[in-house]
Amino acid sequence: MILPEKMSRVQIIANKELLDDVVTRILKFQNFEPEEPEEPISSERFEEARRKLGIIQEHLNKFQIIMDLAGVTIEPKGKMKAGNWNKIADEVDNEATQEEEKYKELLEEIGKIKSELDLYKAQLNEVLPFKDITVNLSKLYSLKLFDVYLLTILSSQLDKVKFDNALVLTKRINEKTYAVIIMAPKGILQKDKIEKEIGAKVFETPEGKAPYDVYNEVQNKINELTKILEETRAKLKEKLRACELHVKEIYGRLLTVRDALTIISRARVSEFYVQIEGYAPTKMVKKLKDQLKGEAFITERLPRRYGEKDKPPTLISLPKSIRVIESVVELYGTPSYWEISPIIFLIFTFPILFGLMFPDFGNALVVFLFAIWFYKYGKRKGSENTEKLSLVLIYSSIVAMITGLLAREFFGPVLVGGPREVFNNDSYPVGPLYYVWPVPVSVSDSLKYLIPFGNYSILSVEIEDTMILSIFIGALALFVSSLLGVINAIDKKDPEFLFYEKLPLLILYTVPLIIFGYGFVDISDYFGKVECLLGGLLTNIFSFPPNLSTPTYALAYILILWVEIGLIYNWISKVILIKRHEGHVGLGAAIGMGFIEGGFEAGILLLSNTISFIRILVFALAHYYLLYAFSYMGLLVLYSSVPYVAAVIIAGIIIALGNLLAIALEGLIVFIQDMRLHFYEMFSKFYEGQGRKFMPVMNYVELEEGEKEIAKEREVIEVKAA
Q: Which of 63, 226, 322, 433 has CA 20 to 30 A from 306's CA?
């Protein structure tokens, strides 16, 4: 799970008469990605297969559009008989063409409606800035005393809208466009002059109608076309549902034929032999040899070292239950064959950080239910990325529910802690869930340094201690990330990458771990020890000679020297790299650039990356106090002179609005910030993500081989060979 699977470059040499049988067995093997041969036996290719591959791909695109428009789950089904893949391609081509003909009229109608909709939406956007003007433009543009002009301009054209003796009114529509009204005494400004100087046309409507009327007409047309579009889609869906299984069977055959033709199109052929080459997991090569025994001669070799032309695909073997985390990694990039995969890292850190930043059982439950719906939506649409991301959100929301249980929070503080927690006054009652909550107060009290909410959040010392603990989590993550970068460099056998790129980072990011891990020398006084070391650092930074009066202060001085040496080492490393790879740069310029990148910038990043993990606490506090504020307002209404029933309704609405805001806004922000901590703070230390995913060819439907036909072919080949 940490390192990619070892891949072998496999070469298959077979009698060209057995090509179809070999292709069938490779499809069934399901662990082979075809490539162009490195040393081809000839320049001859199967051009017919290359041509037919394009046709099959067009059918696949059309089927995906049809199934997507009809709202049918896109998945292959059924079985097919293997044999001559060129002939099978023709058969599947005809079958797909006939099926597409059934929906041709509906698809054309949908296409026309969508084109009309796009046209009307463009008109709507054009008239939108002036939709409140109810006067006919024919009258507005023909006033006796004034000339009036309406324009829509870009932000870059704002400076040009300056005319003497004219009143100019502007209104921002979005980041790029503005609506402009220009009014001037009659005859001073001409339409042609305005359009030429500004570079924008004066707004006009058909027959000089009022923009208000045009807007409503276009909006009604859009509503009408949208209704017709939905009705047409319903017809398509109904028609497709009637033969859904048949469509999925054709779709499965198309996918299988596509992969078969992919193998054939990348092969090379001589007078007697065919050459197929590609990658397969090293541990699976023996199985491939067994499947092709007696039909092909197979050779294998391991990829060459990193940095050479050979770039194998990446296969990370993961249990199905945690494979979804891969989708988060792929947003950054696919791991290369030569580097450690961060997936195992994310399995633990991503959900945990999300849960620490979003600790509310009720809100997390809503996110959990939304993620389930999102997963089903992605499955229906056939979007694998949507399915994976929704599963990541499911896992993260489960952890958030756990932290919410520990924090004793359910849609904010009012339902558990109640008015007593909100007003911080023991004379008020507790919430209705206070005594039935499964996690007792004593457990929450013991976790106040990790989740400082409720009655514990009023103490500033707990907030300070939580900041220290948050930074320790970050220091640990950054150290591990830097260590993985060193391991990657060693695995790549790249001394320059190791000594000038990754080792300086490891040296620097060891310091925060020592500082915020120092408290573990006396776990009972963890925070006191860390604060003492931080005080020693401040003292020795601003004093000379250094204060070495205690072991802690001496360690602080050593750490200051450690950072200085690390920054100098990083500075020198950058100078060496600049001189090696940018030979035109002089020594003085290289030293200056090296200082900026390796000294100044590295020092800033060391500080900012470490402190950045305070956001774990900040977002958790923001979430709590947002709900706290709405709960406070709701309870003020409840305890006011408003009639009780009305007060309950109003208070409920206020608290519900606060929770909706927290779920919709903070849930998204926390998910994004969680990714940010991984992508920028952690991944940047060890992960490049410039690989390519292993994409094996396979049979998407069950393949039935014609044993009699294959036996006859073999007999013919044996006779020819004799």
A: 322
